[in-house]
Amino acid sequence: MQNLSFVGKSTLRIDAYGKVTGATPFSGDLTLPGMLHMKILFSMHPHARVLNIDMQEASLIPGVVAIFTARDIPVNEYGLQKNDQPVLCGPGSTRVDGDLVRFVGDQVAAIVAESEEIASLARGLIKVTYEDLPILSDPVTAMAPGALVIHPELGESNICVHDKIRKGDIDQGFALADVIVEDEYKTPVQEHAYLQPEAGLAYLDDEGRITVQAGGQWTHADREQISHSLDLPLDKIRVIYPAIGGAFGGREDMSVQIVLALAAWKLKRPVRIIWTRQESIVGHGKRHAMTLKTRWGATKAGKLVAASTEIIADAGAYMYTTNKVLGNSTITSTGPYFIPNVKTDVYGVYTNNVPGAAFRGFGAPQALFMAESQMSKLAEKLSMDPVEFRRLNALRDGDTLGVGTIVPGPVSVLQVIDAAATKFDWQPGKLSASTLTKNDAFRRGKGFACGFKNVGFSFGYKENCWARIELRGISEIEEATLWHGSAEVGQGTHTVMVQMAAEATGVTVDKIKLVASDTATSNNSGSVSASRMTFMSGNAIKGAAELALKKWDKEERPAVAEFVFYAPETTPFDKETGFSKPNFAYAYVAQAVEVEVDTETGIIRILRVVSANDVGQAINPAQVEGQIEGAVVQAQGYAISENYLSKDGRVLTDQLSTYLIPTVLDIPDKVESVIVEVPDPIGPWGARGLGELPFLPLVAAITSAVHDATGVWFNEFPLTPERVLRGLGKIS
């Protein structure tokens, strides 16, 4: 047991007071004297060529200062993984086919005016002439030979990603199987629905740098993309993150930053933009929809022997992070289990839909819905308890993943399974309450599912994180300053960084000053994504503190040190076999769920969720519990109510009145957080990443519980009342 002073304590969040009182400014709260206002003209055409943009009437409105189009962008392209998206679409673009719009949220013009109302009025008066092109909204159709190519400048196919796994002998594996389950699953699009829509303020700072204050997840990556598009040196661009009202992966890909920077640069005045909720839903990426066809086999003794899977994911109009998301789907498609024979093909396909983007879980929730459903169905066929079946096949230290290499240890699948089952009081075939409740229409059931996910960047990226610490005082350390590039997107990362800095330096938390989220004051610390920041920043902070303390001991005043932590190396997929060491660490989760199904209305009520998560070391246990509870509610929305609809590339559920996220009246009656701590040998104080874990297996646990209650399997969700009633045969 570690003897710790600040790590492991539920310290009050350092941003709590300002956020609770409303004193903390978010992007949409920022103002400056002489500020202008921007509105974006979206294409609202899923696929078309922009022939002409008539701005004459709009530009004559008093108070309109400027209207920017593709002609004004020096290098009209950007993208986190690939520069495949124009900043503005239209004639005069520097990019080949930059006059094409490929989804309804493509931006055509940026209007800047003295007020938001004038900018909106002018936007409505811009006349755009489009030549509509064929719309590809189904990835299966889009990947077929001979399909119209959405990005002709990139190649001759709409397939933008194809990952493979070839482990063992798949035919021989199925020959050994006594029981085989073959099925097809579909997972939907999910909207991030963060509290704060896209917003920002851009201006020239005291040193003449174009400064953009807008929510994001990686200041330095944002700066690089702005620099590229405006064809300006990096040192002419500054990115600062104010308070951020949620991200969940949705702010990895940029939205308003480049056009704001362009306007501030050209006009030499501050410019602000705030998207409406409708603009946010139409104009920014979503969780990837996927179709998953799979076949799994097991022996009568209950051992998995083979799994063959094909996944087709809708990448939408641009790459965003599809290549990395699908890499994660590939790895997690076999679940946290040892399977000796695996064949997997994962495809990402360009379409004319809203782009698929990073979203909490990053490709794992879709793959694990399939894998965990297969596990539950195999257990049923084998007449085995689903928890015992999972125990029997769980990865152990020394086992190989689907990609053929040994999973980094310690592997704690069994520990989280046991923790969840014990807390839930799981008994084979029994519920704590009767399956019949108020009357025969109400039925109760229980379900169980597991998951795992990488910590940190993968596939050969040289994963690293920077930190700087300065110790001040005379005979003893009176104050310490920590500089770091990390974003704080609401998950509490800045609080745990201060706790870790206090632990590493021996200074109390109240004496730690944090300077973060500003490219002018910090080097690159990487993205707040991939459940990486606690793990990576903690190691960087420990390294910087150790060096600073050595200088302090030598009586340097102040004692200043920088440190870059480099994680162990990873390797990319072999193109033909998938053989790789894709990640240096994983974290594990198991969940048990009890539901009540009203078989007359189709309404599902989540009575109880037990979520056991191996966090290695809980830096701040209260924040861990908050992350678990938030992820469970978000995953419940994904499973039951969030029914994103589009037709021919057009978004039909573009407001929160039609896209229904859970309210306080919808959340589970009881969420029980079980914190499992199996220290990771390279994690700071043993910590693993947490943020995405509790989201991963919940959908499969819910559908398993619904099956337990009703006898019906659901291979597609959300489980809206209509879908439930149709599955029960109550409606056609």
Q: What is the rounded Rg?
A: 26 Å
Mean pLDDT: 97
Uncertain runs:
none
CATH superfamily of the largest domain: Aldehyde oxidase/xanthine dehydrogenase, molybdopterin binding domain
Global geometry: globular
What is the fold-level CATH name, i.e. the topology of the largest domain? Aldehyde Oxidoreductase, domain 4
CATH-scheme architecture of the largest domain? 2-Layer Sandwich
Spatial strand sequence of the major β-sheet: 3-5-1-12-9-10-11
β-strand amount: 15-25%
Structural class: alpha+beta
Query: Which CATH class of the largest domain is shown?
Result: Alpha Beta
- Helices, by number, come to 17
- Whole-number count of domains: 3
Biggest sheet: strands, sense, closure? 7 strands, mixed
Terminal CA distance: 59 Å
Helix content: 25-40%
Tell me what you see in this structure.
With 732 residues, this protein is α+β, with helices and mostly antiparallel strands. It has three domains: 36-133 and 198-274, Aldehyde Oxidoreductase, domain 3 (Alpha-Beta Complex), CATH 3.90.1170; 290-395 and 406-457 and 575-727, Aldehyde oxidase/xanthine dehydrogenase, molybdopterin binding domain (Aldehyde Oxidoreductase, domain 4), CATH 3.30.365; 464-566, Aldehyde Oxidoreductase, domain 4 (2-Layer Sandwich), CATH 3.30.365. It contains 17 helices and 25 strands. Helix 6 packs across helix 7 (257-267) and helix 9 (322-332) runs parallel beside helix 10 (364-381). The chain starts with 15 loop residues before the first helix and ends in a 5-residue tail after the last helix.
